[in-house]
Design brief:
The chain has 474 residues and is of the alpha/beta class. The protein has helices at 6-17, 34-42, 58-71, 83-95, 119-130, 146-154, 175-184, 191-201, 205-209, 217-226, 235-243, 248-257, 266-273, 280-290, 314-322, 333-336, 341-357, 359-366, 418-435, 455-459, and strands at residues 22-27, 48-51, 102-107, 137-143, 166-169, 294-297, 308-311, 373-380, 389-397, 401-408, 440-447, 463-466. InterPro entries: ATPase_dom, P-loop_NTPase.
C-alpha cells in the first residue's frame, strides 16, 4: 500500500500514458522507498527489470543481466562480452514483445557502472539510438548512490545531456505521512509517540517498517539499536558507504556539523573537518544536500559566501548523540532514560529540527502558505554590551514581517512567566538592533500542547502553533 507520493505517482502514470518514449530517473537516499514506489505503481508489470549487484565485477553484472533476460523470455545465445552487446540483446528482446507500452526498470544503476566497464556509453546509446526513437518505451532508472545519479544522469554532460524527461527526487515522509503509515501497519502509536519516533528515524519508511506493534516505542528502539543483535546497529556506516564510494570526507563534514546546531560556513567546515581548500568541498556539500542530510541557508544580513550548512537528518543526529563512540552494553538503555535529563534535553533539540523540517505546515497554520519565506536559526555571542541571544526559528517573510518562533517541547501545556516573557522581548530587541531589520516582528510560540492561558500568553504572543499543526497535510 502506497502512502503519500501522490505527485510522484502522477508523474509516473503520465509518463506511461505518453504517446512518446520517456526516460525517468528516480533518486534519493537509501531506504527511502524508490524501488517500492515503482513496483507498486506498475504492480510488477514490467517488460524487463534488472537490479545492479553491489560490489560485483563487470563480468558478473553482465552474466546476471543476461540470465535475467533469459528468465524473462529472451531466446538469444551466449553471454554478452560487454554492455554494448548486453543492451543490444535487450533491444532484440523488447522488439519481440507484443504492441503496447513497455516498461524497462533498471534499479541500482550506479552499481552497474563498474571501473572500466564502459557502461555509460552503452547505456547512452541504448536510449539515444534505439529507445528514444520509438514510441513505446518507458525507461525508469533508480539509484541510492545519489552523487552518481546526479553527476552521471541528472547533470550528464555527455550523450544524456538534456535527454532526461522526468527526475523524481524522493523525499522522506513528513509527520502526516508517518501517521498514515503507522496506521496502515497497525502500529498503536499516539501523536507524541509518532513525534518521538520521528526524532529517531526521521521520515524513512524502511525504519518505520521495522517497528513491532507488540512492543512499546522505547522497547522497539532498544531492540533496533541497543539489543544484543540490533538490526540497525551498523546502519549509519552502511548508509553513508552505500551513498558515496569514498565516504570518508562526507563523514568528516557530517561529524563537524553535528557539533554546531545552527550550522557552519564553508570556512568553518574546512577548519573543523580538516579538509583541503579545493573545489571538492562544493561537490561534497552538494551531494549531502541532495541526499537530504544537510541544508544550505542564508542568515539575515549575511553575504552569499557566508551561507551556513546545517545538519538536519534526524537519524544521523540520533546516532551521534547516543551511539557514536559509546560502548553501550545495556539492551534496555532507551527504556531506562525516558525520564532522564539527557532524554528531555535531546527531545527539545530534536523538536526544533522537526519544526524546521515542517516549515510548510507551520506556514499553513499561520495562514501564510502563499508567502515566500526563508527559515533559519539565529545566534549572537555575548559581548560587553549585551548577554547574547539565541532564537530557535525565524521565518523571514517577503511581506515585510518576521515570525520569531520560540519552540518548547513538554508533556503538557507550557507556561510563560514574567522572566521568560522578558527573555523573549530581549531577544526580539537584540535581533532588531543587530540585524537592523525594519520588518515587523511577530512573536510566535510552537509547543507540544499549547500554552497555559495567562496575561503573558494572551497579551504578548501573536500566534501559537501546536504539535498537532505539524501533522497537517501541507
Amino acid at each position: 500500500m502506497l502512502i503519500g507520493r501522490e505527485k510522484e505517482i502522477q508523474e509516473l502514470r503520465q509518463a506511461y500514458d505518453s504517446d512518446e518514449s520517456k526516460f525517468v530517473a528516480i533518486f534519493g537516499r537509501r531506504r527511502i522507498g524508490k524501488t517500492y514506489l515503482v513496483r507498486e505503481v506498475f504492480q510488477d508489470n514490467f517488460a524487463f527489470t534488472y537490479s545492479g549487484m553491489a560490489q560485483a565485477s563487470t563480468k558478473e553484472q553482465l552474466q546476471r543481466f543476461y540470465l535475467t533476460l533469459k528468465s524473462q523470455g529472451f531466446k538469444g545465445g551466449a553471454y554478452p562480452n560487454n554492455w554494448i552487446e548486453a543492451f543490444y540483446m535487450l533491444e532484440q528482446y523488447l522488439e519481440g514483445l507484443p504492441e503496447g507500452k513497455k516498461v524497462v526498470f533498471l534499479d541500482e544503476l550506479p552499481w552497474m557502472d563498474g571501473p572500466k566497464s564502459s557502461f555509460m556509453p552503452a547505456f547512452e546509446n541504448f536510449w539515444n539510438a534505439w529507445a528514444s526513437a520509438r514510441k513505446d518505451i518507458l525507461l525508469i532508472v533508480c539509484g541510492s548512490a545519489t552523487s552518481w545519479m546526479v553527476k552521471k544522469i541528472l547533470k550528464n554532460r555527455g550523450g544524456l545531456h538534456n535527454r532526461l524527461n522526468n527526475q523524481i527526487h524522493l523525499q522522506p515522509f513528513n509527520l502526516h505521512e508517518c501517521e498514515l503509515y503507522a496506521k496502515s501497519i497497525n502500529l498503536p502509536l499516539e501523536r507524541q509517540e509518532i513525534m518521538e519516533a520521528y526524532m529517531v528515524f526521521g521520515g524513512i519508511p524502511f525504519y518505520w517498517s521495522l517497528l513491532n506493534k507488540s512492543l512499546s516505542l522505547p522497547q522497539n528502539i532498544d531492540t533496533l539499536f541497543f539489543g544484543r543483535t540490533p538490526k540497525l546497529g551498523n546502519e549509519f556506516k552502511e548508509l553513508y558507504s552505500s551513498l558515496f564510494k569514498q565516504s570518508e570526507p562526507y563523514l568528516d563534514i557530517i561529524t563537524a556539523l553535528a557539533k554546531k546546531k545552527i550550522g557552519m560556513t564553508r570556512e568553518e567546515i574546512i577548519t573543523n573537518a580538516n579538509l583541503a581548500t579545493n573545489g571538492q568541498l562544493t561537490k561534497y556539500l552538494e551531494d549531502l544536500e541532495n541526499c537530504g542530510f544537510i541544508r544550505r541557508y542564508q542568515a539575515i544580513g549575511s553575504k552569499t559566501k557566508n551561507a551556513l550548512y546545517q545538519l538536519i537528518d534526524n537519524f544521523t543526529l540520533f546516532y551521534f548523540k547516543f551511539m557514536e563512540g559509546k560502548k553501550n552494553t545495556d539492551a534496555n538503555y532507551w527504556s531506562k532514560i525516558q525520564m532522564a535529563s539527557i532524554f528531555n534535553t535531546w527531545c527539545g533539540l530534536a523538536f526544533e529540527r522537526i519544526c524546521l523540517l515542517h516549515s510548510e505546515q507551520i506556514k499553513k497554520a499561520l495562514g501564510i502558505s502563499g508567502v515566500i519565506t526563508t527559515e533559519y536559526s539565529w545566534r549572537t555571542a555575548a559581548t560587553d554590551e549585551h548577554s547574547g541571544a539565541q532564537i530557535d526559528l525565524l521565518i523571514d517573510r517577503s511581506d515585510k514581517a518576521i515570525n520569531l518562533c520560540e519552540i518548547k517541547y513538554s508533556d503538557g501545556p507550557y507556561t510563560i512567566d514574567k522572566k521568560y516573557m522578558e527573555n523573549i522581548r530581549n531577544k526580539a530587541t537584540l535581533f532588531r538592533q543587530l540585524t537592523k531589520t525594519r520588518k515587523g516582528i511577530a512573536l510566535t510560540m510552537i509547543t507540544s500542547y499549547g500554552l497555559v492561558k495567562n496575561s503573558y500568553s494572551m497579551n504578548n504572543i501573536h500566534s501559537q502553533i501546536t504539535a498537532d499543526d505539524l501533522f497537517m497535510d501541507a
